[in-house]
Amino acid sequence: MKLCIRNGLVISPRNDLERLADVYIEDGIVTAITEPGEGSSKTEYREIFAEGKWVVPGLIDLHVHFREPGYEYKEDIASGCLAAAKGGFTTVCPMPNTKPVIDNTDMVAYVSKKAMEANCVNVLPIGAITLGQEGSILSDFEAMKEASGSIFALSEDGKSVMDSLLMKKAMEKAKALDLPIFSHTEDRELAKGGVMNEGEVAHSLGLPGIPPEAEEIIAIRDILLAKNTGCRTHLCHISTKGSVELIRHAKQHGIPVTAETAPHYFVLTDQDVIQGKEGMKTADSNWKMNPPLRSEEDRLEIIKGLKDGTLDVIATDHAPHHHEEKARPFQEAPFGIIGLETSFALSYTALVKTGILTPKEFISCMSATPAQILGIDRGILEVGKAADLAVIDVEREYEIGLDSFASKSRNTPFIGRKVFGQICYTMVDGKVVYSLE
Ligand code: DOR
Ligand code: ZN
Ligand code: ZN
């Protein structure tokens, strides 16, 4: 299949590209990036006209939950992949908190097989740090790295490894295998019983809080362990000002730490949890996730962290849950919101449209830097590289609709929100896996 994407604004931070160009693709590889119209005689190419649109390396999400095996009614690998493709993502990393947990070679092979059958986006599995995510016995990292499909990182996401000695041993092993550890930074005891950010809003709603130090105490612990073991450590879903300051400090000291945040942490605050009129305050569980939405001060520091490079990556923590589970009272509903299909538009609207991030800085957060963290040769548009890309109409404004999702779940606080950034095409290895029409 020969394809030419004509006259789009090609943005690829890894090779410092930001210009109008035609992108030629043959057998899944980018074969030429030329001035618009320069190679127009190549009539055998299928043409996609991208005038006024962005052509970017396919987005890469370091943090999703695809629920298969065990909770396929929320999402399975195939539906998760379709949601990813619809959101402009070409590579996703599913977390291992499934049932059973992804903690051995058979489970890694199972995820890889399902991903292969889905035949859509690249799925790079993450293995559990401990067997059954029970926090006591390390899983066999080496075997999972060599498994069919292979893992690309290790994580206990959903909770932290609370035993610091065990976490240190995990980092030593991961370092020897050159695998990064993705840390869900949450102190179990400090967070216990909490359902939203600790503070005035929680108080006014009569809900138990999760304090910022529940996140920060594990963030600093894992920064210290990263320093002492040399293990590449990636801190997941950073939500507080204090964490950003700790990571900034760690980076100034050359500690091998990277960090992600998610769109909800720079778009919303705990104030948004309040629904209903004054005097009739209620909380809606579509605003419930872990870590929770924080204060305005935290939100502003997250943005500052993205701008100054303290926060490297925008991930989604795509966490699908069934409508009936989310319809429970706030305190009983599960934590988590979906994100794959809204991440680009929410982030573009909040960060680029406002002039906070440049297009290149933004695409670094969404594609180039995640690829570097994973050590994969993607996240770049360059001759000779895989043609993983998205064509995006950043001028197109639309309202996020309840019925617009490819995901099996609908648990998002962003229904009805107006955003810019419509994904028009997503391609993986030169194959169209999503098109708007
Ligand atoms: O909100 C969340 N949902 N946070 C997590 O850490 C886990 C995730 C899930 O698996 O639903
Ligand atoms: Zn987590
Ligand atoms: Zn997660």
Could you give a quick summary of the protein structure above?
30% of the residues lie in helices and 24% in strands.
| Mean of pLDDT | 97
Continuous helix count: 13
Return the domain count: 2
CATH fold description of the largest domain? TIM Barrel
What molecules are bound to this protein?
(4S)-2,6-dioxohexahydropyrimidine-4-carboxylic acid, zinc ion
Quote the beta fraction.
Answer: 15-25%
Shape summary: globular
Q: Give the C-level CATH assignment of the largest domain.
A: Alpha Beta
| Total beta strand runs | 21
Q: Could you tell me the radius of gyration in angstroms?
A: 21 Å
Largest sheet: 8 strands, mixed
CATH architecture group name of the largest domain: Alpha-Beta Barrel
Question: Alpha-carbon distance between the termini?
Answer: 20 Å
Structural features:
437 residues; alpha/beta; Urease, subunit C, domain 1; TIM Barrel; 2 domains; eight-stranded mixed beta sheet; 13 helices; 30% helix; binds (4S)-2,6-dioxohexahydropyrimidine-4-carboxylic acid; binds zinc ion
Tell me what the structure shows.
The protein is an alpha/beta fold and 437 residues long. Helices cover 30% and strands 24% of the residues. It is built from 13 helices and 21 strands. Strand 10 (153-155), helix 4 (164-176) and strand 11 (181-183) form a beta-alpha-beta unit. Helix 1 packs across helix 2 and helix 4 (164-176) packs across helix 7. Bound molecules: (4S)-2,6-dioxohexahydropyrimidine-4-carboxylic acid and zinc ion (2 copies). (4S)-2,6-dioxohexahydropyrimidine-4-carboxylic acid is lined by residues 65, 97, 157-158, 184, 289-290, 317, 319, 334-336. The site of one zinc ion has 6 residues, from loops.
